[in-house]
Structure formats: C-alpha cells, structure tokens
Amino acid sequence: MNVKLKFIPLVLISVLIVSGCSLLGGGSDPSQTGNSSQTTGWEYNNPDNGGFEVKTDYLEVAGPGLVLVEGGTYTMGQTEQDVTYDWNNVPRRVTVTSFYMDQTEVRNVDYREYLNWISRVFIDYPDVHRNALPDTLVWRSPLAYNEPYVEYYFRHPAYNEYPVVGVDWLQANDFCIWRTDRVNELMLINEGILDMDPNQIGRENFNTGAYLAGQYEGLVIENLPSLDPNKESRRVNMADGILLPKYRLPTEAEWEYAAVALIGNTYDERMYERRMFPWDGHNVRYTHGKDMGVMMANFKRGRGDMMGTAGALNDNGAITVPVASYWPNDNGLYCMAGNVNEWVLDVYRPLSYEDVSDFRPFRGNVFETLVRNEDGTIAAKDSLGRLKTRPITDEEAAGRTNYLRADYINYRDGDLLSRTDYDSQEAARGNVSTGEMYSQKPTDMTSLITDKVRVYKGGSWKDRVYWLNPATRRFLDQDEARDDLGFRCAMIRVGSPSGKY
C-alpha cells in the first residue's frame, strides 16, 4: 500500500510535466520544423501574432535537365599509370556533398535557345550577342577539309542533339547565369505570380538576384499574400522555397566524383574496385548480351582511326555524337568519358590535389559582396539587369579566422608564402601575390599556368583512351575554345544529402 501511494504521485507528476510541455509547444519531434516554434512556443504563419512565415512542407525538386548525384567520400585522383609524368593527380581522400548535374552535355539546340533570347532582349546591345557566339572556326585545320563543320555543325538541325563546342569558360559561366534566371522566372510563372513577358528589353529582364532585391517588377499577376498584419501582399523570397539555387559549372572534384559513380560498385561502404572509367572493368567495350564488343564511349582508337571500318563502325562517331549516346553511368549521366571534354570551375594548379580542402575541394575562390550605396542599400543593377558585385576588401575581412582576403586563387601556390625566397616582412605588408607563377627571379621563364587557366576533363572524340579516365586533368586559358571541348551544368542540393530527413 505504501509503495503504491508513493508511486502514484510520481506518475501523475510525469503526466503533468509531459502535458505542460505539450501545452507550451515542447515535446515535439526536434527534427521537424512543425507548426510552432520549439524555442518560444509561438505558432508559425499566424497573422494574429505578427505573421512569422515558415515553409514547413518544403520538398526539393531537381531543376530541368538535372539528376541527383548523392555525395560521399572517395579517393580523388590517379587510378592508372601517369603516362605524362605530370604527377598532378596524386590520390587523396575527400568528401563531396550531394549535388545535381546535367544528365547530358549542353547541346547545340540549348545554346541556340540562349542566343535567341539574348538577341531578342539585348537588341540595342549587339555586342552581348556577338560575345556569346561560339567560335565555329575551331573546326578549321591547316591540312584537313573541315569547312562543312564550320558552316553546319552549330546551326544545322541534324546536329541539334550534339554537344555545343567552341565555347570558352567565360561563355559557359554566362550560360549558367542565363539558365538560372530562365528557370526561376518560369517557376514564378507556374506559381501564378508572374505572367509571361516576351517583351523584356535590355536591363529590364528577369534576373533572380535583381528580383529578390526588389529591382525587377515584371508582369505581376498576384504576389503572395502577406501574413504581416501591416502588409496585404509580398514578393517571393528565398525562404519560400520556390526559387532554385544557381546553375553553375561543377567543381573538378564534383565532376570526377560524378563520373566514377561509386554508388554502383559499393556495398555497405565497401568498394570492390576503384574504377578506371565511368563503368566497371578495364575495358572500353560493352561486355554483356547482344551488344558485347560495342564501344562504351566516343574516342580515337588509334592513329587515323576516328570511328572504325565501314559496315562495323566501332563508336559510330567521326566527330562528336548525340549527347545521350552509349550507356549512362550509375549516376544516370551520359558521356562522362569521350564525346567532348568538359570545362569545370577550378583554376588549374599541378598540386591542387595536395593543397585543397578535404571537404568540397576547390581552387578558384574570389570572395565577393554586393555593391552598395552610401546608405547601405543595394546599388542599381547593371546594363545586363544583374546586381553589381565586387571583391571584398581587406578591411571587410579583418578579424575573421576563416579567410583574410578576397582572392585565394594563388593560395599556397603563387603567393609570397609559396616562394622559396619569400620575405615575411613583405608578405606581412599585404603584397601577397607575385604573378610570377613558379618563377623565382625576373630572368626566369614563366610557365603557361596563370590565374586564368581552367581545368577540363573527360576525354573527347579526338583523344586516346588514356584521357577517358576521370582522374586525368588538363588545362586551357579561360578565353580559349576548342572543337572537342564543351560543358554541362551543376547545382547544389540543399538540405539532406539523400533526402531521407
């Protein structure tokens, strides 16, 4: 009896505590946003208490053309003999977070859509269209008759599905900016917020950053209702989960990780083979069924052999092939080996694999901020309708522990601290970059490696099989273009890497 009397009040107290927590908004699943604050107990999205709006049912969707590449750890770098003796891809364990990547290379028809939009919107600025044109003269060769490709490859409908080439790194980045804006504009149209506006001219075109900053109005059908008791409606902001993140070029680590597609040859974190190509095995031919012996990629088999013998063409491609040719890798990506090489975001350095972070490795950071007026408001957009940015100043970085300046392209490889004869006092005065790139004195010859050379990867229709290995790397000035070099876009996956929580 005494035991029961002592026990019952404890149970009642526990019930009251749990009930009290529920009444005050506590006791809910801490991994879920819920409908009320776990900090204050106040209800979200309630105009009666101030209308703090929270998107509680966000479901991430992939942008057009993208597939999810689930992130993870992998050994980035060399998987076979280094025949060039560059030693520029020493193996290193890194982690790449989940991201989206184009299922295929950007096609001629995609790039022509981009040019059509530019010519229509920037009709008063013909240089914008002219600067975006791919260089079709990349097909010319002094001792080959390639003029038909100069004339037809980019514009003839027979080549619609073929990868665009003759695009330099800067043009590829501009395409990514344009694609971001067109996709997000359509998202707002589909939500019934904006109406179609085919008459956008000049700087008054939809730009995601300008819209978020209130510098683009557009043809408004109906803005979102505002739960703020002092406002009737409001514009969409990033917290609504309607607008997608930016399209961009993939980093070198992302591209290589996506190409090797380790998701297809691992079991419970046990990898049974480091892939030499985007598929299993050490063979470039398909090994199963009726397609046994068929080439897995478009490449140059040997001197003078671009496609094999008539009646049995080995890869069915004298030059490039349609972007969805052959078999996709285990990430669902086509032509991650062969067809065309692909630009990536990184600045090239031979020792990047040793220098970069082991989490989301990348070389090429130049930290920027928005240009603002004296009163702190965002400066007016530029003639292309984009917000103006600038590198951060040393004063703005002062006091930080994670970075001290804007430009980290030369970090540990070209700045004064990287030199064998650096003067620590000179470095302390802020003269952190020499521009000499491995040259130790003025009379030395400088290398071809500068702050404007970018990595490209993947191998192409005119490359030998060695370059089909995703770990191989080459570089080219960001202003140059070639007939075997294209690109595809990527986008970060926000939130959970796998979508499980």
The CATH architecture of one domain can be given as Alpha-Beta Complex
> From the structure provided, what is the oligomeric state, counting identical versus distinct chains?
single chain
- Strand order in space, largest sheet: 15-14-11-16
Order of helices and strands: HEEEEHHHHHEEHEEEEEHEEHHEEEE
Helicity range = 10-25%
CATH homologous superfamily grouping of one domain? paralog of FGE (formylglycine-generating enzyme)
Assign the structural class, choosing from mainly alpha, mainly beta, alpha/beta, alpha+beta, or little secondary structure.
alpha+beta
- Please report the distance between the alpha carbons of the first and last residues: 48 Å
Specify the number of helices.
10
Shape: globular
Radius of gyration: 27 Å
CATH-derived topology of one domain? paralog of FGE (formylglycine-generating enzyme)
Poorly predicted parts: 1-26
Description:
There is one protein chain. Residues 1-26 have low confidence and may be disordered. The protein is built from 10 helices and 17 strands. The longest helix is centred in the N-terminal third of the chain and has 22 residues, at 2-23. The chain has a domain at 67-191 and 242-360 and 457-492: Alpha-Beta Complex (paralog of FGE (formylglycine-generating enzyme)), CATH 3.90.1580.10. It is α+β, with helices and mostly antiparallel strands and 501 residues long.
